[in-house]
Design a protein that fits this description.
By secondary structure, the protein is mainly α. Helix content is 62%, strand content 2%. Strand 1 and strand 2 form a beta hairpin.
Length: 393
């Protein structure tokens, strides 16, 4: 059963976000047979890019149109509060991951697990690594999306402020930040390890802002250009990306002396080919309603329900994928065990989403009013229940 607010939702956003979440979970159990059918095997981008782009679209609906004079401080505090929630979630998934791998290492005699996914510094240089964890400088493998997204949300009010003057200026400012971050390069540093964050927020913010800008423009009464040349160009690019990945053509040098952010495939700095791939997919979904409407469902559709609760589903999916990785590090994986692990993990994520949905509807249901008592034409006040004498007062 859905409420009035849910009926106004564009379920296409929820469904696409749900598919991205499930794909992230599958890809975070590397080596399983289902991984080969995820869309990273058919182009330059993967589910992380899709998730961030959809997050920008959702941010436009949640914050973009509310960032007005007299309301800007409230919206800013809400976005920063959300960033704080993501920070706590990042710490939670990190500590859960360390606990899971430590459990399997201790109880199954598998100390080699403590050298996986960047856990080793926590064991060999604990004080520095824990300081890195709380400052987001030390990130475990497969535990790096939330930290990037939190920093992007901290920057969101600045982009919204620029967007109140011009959405074009907002995109330009975001593009300049992406360009400078990729050319210099600039990114948050690892600590105590060397290098940068795996997902550089100063680069990934551009993809977020593109989704933000597009939806803000549409909600302000605008539209994106649709013609056969743009549709054809997007389709051609996706075809080239598909052939590039499947043939494959990774050894082909097409750099032409340009910086790698223009011609490479860096995920850290979100190189242009990766970003263009997910943008081309999004554009075709917008330009071809017959395709995008495939994702339009009822609010009670399982994927729509899952997509509504992205953060808790993502956190639980991350923890489940870490448990799956630890299990596969102890017990030799088979096709049956891998399919079972992935299927159970997906089922648990749906179960969580349905539980949250049920719980929220439960607490929103108005309490039943006391029964009215009428005696001789007069309505009597309801008699309170007699207290239990055995209970402390």
């Amino acid at each position: 059963m859905s409420n009035g607010n849910q009926s106004l939702r564009d379920t296409r956003i929820d469904v696409i976000r749900a598919i991205a979440l499930l794909t992230i979970f599958v890809n975070h159990v590397p080596g399983n047979p289902i991984e080969v059918i995820t869309h990273k095997n058919f182009g330059f981008s993967d589910s992380a890019e899709a998730f961030v782009l959809v997050s920008g679209i959702s941010a436009a609906l949640a914050y973009g149109l509310k960032f007005e004079t007299g309301n800007r401080l409230i919206v800013t505090l809400k976005t920063w509060r959300r960033a704080g929630v993501l920070y706590i979630a990042q710490l939670g998934t990190t500590m859960a991951t360390i606990g899971i791998f430590s459990f399997f290492a201790l109880y199954f005699g598998a100390p080699h697990l403590l050298a996986k996914i960047n856990i080793e510094p926590v064991m060999t240089d604990t004080a520095a690594a824990l300081l890195g964890v709380v400052t987001l400088g030390h990130q475990l493998g497969y535990n790096n999306i939330l930290s990037m997204y939190a920093v992007v949300l901290l920057m969101l009010p600045l982009f919204l402020l620029i967007g109140t003057f011009s959405i074009g200026w907002m995109v330009a400012a975001s593009g300049i930040m992406w360009l400078v971050a990729g050319l210099l390069p600039i990114a948050p540093p690892h600590f105590p390890n060397n290098g940068y964050w795996f997902l550089n927020p100063f680069s990934w913010q551009l993809l977020f802002v593109l989704g933000l800008a597009a939806m803000m423009h549409i909600k302000r009464g605008g539209s994106l250009p649709v013609n056969r040349w743009l549709v054809g160009a997007a389709a051609l690019y996706l075809t080239i990306a598909l052939l590039w990945v499947r043939l494959p053509l990774w050894g082909l040098d097409v750099s032409m002396g340009l910086p790698s952010i223009f011609t490479g495939f860096s995920k850290t700095f979100l190189s242009l080919p990766r970003m263009m791939h997910v943008v081309a997919i999004a554009y075709l979904l917008y330009a071809l309603p017959a395709v995008s409407n495939i994702f339009r469902t009822s609010v009670d559709n399982p994927l729509a329900v899952l997509g509504r609760y992205a953060l808790p589903v993502f956190v639980v999916g991350t923890i489940l994928s870490m448990a799956a990785q630890a299990w596969r590090g102890v017990f030799p994986p088979t096709i049956i065990s891998d399919v079972t692990i992935v299927a159970v993990g997906i089922a648990l994520q749906f179960a969580l989403a349905y539980y949250i949905d049920w719980y929220r509807r439960l607490i929103r249901t108005p309490a039943k009013e006391p029964r009215r008592v009428v005696l001789h034409g007069r309505e009597l006040s309801p008699v309170p229940a007699r207290p239990n004498k055995n209970q402390p007062r």
